[in-house]
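Dig into these lines:

——
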Amino acid sequence: MSTKLVKISSREDNLKRKVRRHLKQIGFKKEHDGSLAIDGEGKDVVRALHLAQRNSRLTKNLDFLSERAPGLIKYFATGEDICPNEISPRIERIHAETQQSDLFRLASLTWSVPVSNGFGRRLRYLVWDDSNNKLIGLIAIGDPVFNLAVRDNLIGWSAEDRRARLINVMDAYVLGALPPYNSLLAGKMVACLIRTREIYEDFKTQYGDTTGIISGTNKKARLIAVTTSSSMGRSSVYNRLKLDGTKYFESLGYTEGWGHFHIPDKLFLELREYLRRKGHPYADLNRFGAGPNWRLRTARAALVELGLNDRILRHGIRREVFISFLVSEGTKLLLTGSGQPDTSCLDSADDVAELALDRWVRPRATRDPRYLDWTHEDLADSFCRFGQRIRAQLQQVS
């Protein structure tokens, strides 16, 4: 065997060992069929499995945190900043390269499960409390996963139907409230804000008259439905999400537990570089044109080339999937593609927020005042092992 072939074989062996070692370190064990099993159960276990990915994301953002966190901290509430009877929610559309975009980025880094950057079409929002100019939560919707059995079964789509009409569906890949508002069940309110006239009209303005990159046709897209999924199994936020007799989200069932979250960015880049050396076409797959599954397909291709079982990508964490219809008879419209969307059922963000405040937020504040204990030090701690550095920076500006 030539020296060159020996070196290639050695690199492959090292990469295979690195993949196996990483999966073992973060808490997975291998099943007989090659898929992975979680050693334990519950949300803390899921958070632990995401920890390597989260630490990688925070490391990549250290310069951003050092430069921007001290100036943006004033927009994060403490418990003492909140007067439940005066909370006044407002959604603000975010545009790139703005302070609002930086604030969204910083806030999303507090999530224990790392936030995706979204794919293709995107609309992002901050949810403000105008009573104190503090941040309540985040909303981001983007292109949905192409293959999602529970969604497609509900609608009754064939493969051809899906290709033709998936353009009318988006996925909420960021949807939730920040502390201490999350302690007041404001996450339910933020979720309900998806099904509002403002979101529908923003989508229509931004994407209603554009040509699809993949299809090359103008399909006059309208936002008929938005899906979302829980990050930790069954969701207590989206279940039974109803206001004034109207369902805002309904459960579709669970995913099968396939994905790539357990392959952190650094390891994924090594797998991608390996494919590039092999001349594999997935090494430089265009992320926008390829859609949300591009990373999964690239990881799978690299594992197969290495001689590893691609069932490694079956991590076993089944996420509950939900759907919100923004128009009347949304299922029928998505199935047939005929008819005009009826948006008479949509309320304004202000009206939905007020219903949610009365239904969840204000009663929770009366029952459980622990939200008052939240401080900016707790915010620093939410950045995990990076908290000490951030806490020191916050003390400098306080």
